[in-house]
Amino acid sequence: MNQTAEDTASAEVAQPVLPWEDVLPEHFQMLRLSPLATDRATGGRPLRFVQFGRAERHSKELSLLRINIQLPGQRVRKEQNYLDIWVDHLTHTVRFGPESGLQIEPWNRGIGRFLIAHGVHWAQKKWSSYKIEGVPLASKDGLNEDTRLRRDHFLRTLGFEVVYADAQHMKGSIKDVHVGNLHSTWNNDKVQIIEILEAAQMLEKAEQNMIEQEVTIRKHEDRVNKYKREDSGLRFTIACLVTFAVFQAGLLIWIATHR
Predict the structure, then answer these.
(1) Which of 144, 139, 193 is nearest to 166 (CA)?
(2) What CA–CA distance (Å, rounded) separates 189 from 192?
(3) How many of the other CB atoms lie within 10 Å of CB of 115?
């Protein structure tokens, strides 16, 4: 029993306790998700604006970049839309979190690639020689061929090498890679960072368009009202002419019958 207790205590000590668990994003930007064609797997993909937040922490042993995506008017699960990049300065390694994998909502809008590319760019600025150790990929993604191909394409565009230990493509993994060999770019046709001045210009332009539309609508309303007044006048004139014509016809008939 004593040995078992000691083993348990040693195992607990061996497990690293990571700091900064309660760190929340502190700096924010707006992202524009471009409207895309409807996808058969994910449905409609309209224009959207979302909030991109980030926070950094540093110590002698570790560095952390925590980034997330917030959707206005929509709540997501705790494990969705966030990514941690942990830098271990003792082992010169970089790893991504959460361990459950990157979970994005809305899916298939370019957000996942943007988050990882942003994290890679951050790590490359100071720790390009550090290594990202290979990890196994979720076997459940291999159950659907389309899902697996999407995942592999996503990883390869970022510079990861995907390998399989079986012909069925169920036991996949990514190989070790140095941070400097990864790609820190994303599809700018899908996701654009909107700075504060750009956002202000967009609002100003939208307000100007609204004012111009209001002026145009007012002009059309004035024209319609004018046509209505003219129509009423024409109706009255026609009614008078019809009445006069009937009167003349009646008078002619009376004259003809009383000669």
Answers:
(1) 139
(2) 7
(3) 24
**184, 117 in Cβ contact below 8 A?**
yes
- State the residue for tokens 């020689």: 129
Tokens standing for residue 143 = 């159950």
Bridge partner residues of 33 (DSSP): 48, 191
Are the C-beta atoms of 177 and 131 separated by less than 8 Å?
A: yes
Q: Do residues 131 and 178 make contact, with C-beta atoms less than 8 angstroms apart?
A: yes
User: Which residues are within 8 A (CB) of 116 and not within 5 positions of it... i.e. 6 or more apart?
Assistant: 83, 96, 102, 158
Pairwise CA distance, residues 180 & 235, whole Å = 82
Cβ(90)–Cβ(127) below 8 Å: no
**Alpha-carbon gap, residue 164 to 22, rounded angstroms:** 37
Supply the pTM of this predicted model. Answer: 0.73
3-state secondary structure of 89: coil
Q: CA–CA separation, 211 vs 48, rounded Å?
A: 23
Q: pLDDT in tens for each of the 259 residues of the chain?
A: 444 544 444 444 444 667 898 999 999 999 999 999 988 877 889 999 999 999 999 999 999 999 999 998 888 888 899 999 999 999 999 999 888 888 999 988 999 999 999 999 999 999 999 999 888 888 887 788 888 888 899 999 999 999 998 888 888 889 999 999 999 999 999 999 988 777 778 778 888 888 888 888 888 888 888 888 888 888 888 888 888 888 888 878 887 777 6
Q: Exposed (0-12), middle (13-18) or buried (19+): which is 107, by Cβ within 10 Å?
A: middle
**From CA 94, how far away is CA 131, in angstroms rounded?**
6
Residues 98, 79 contacting (CB under 8 angstroms): yes
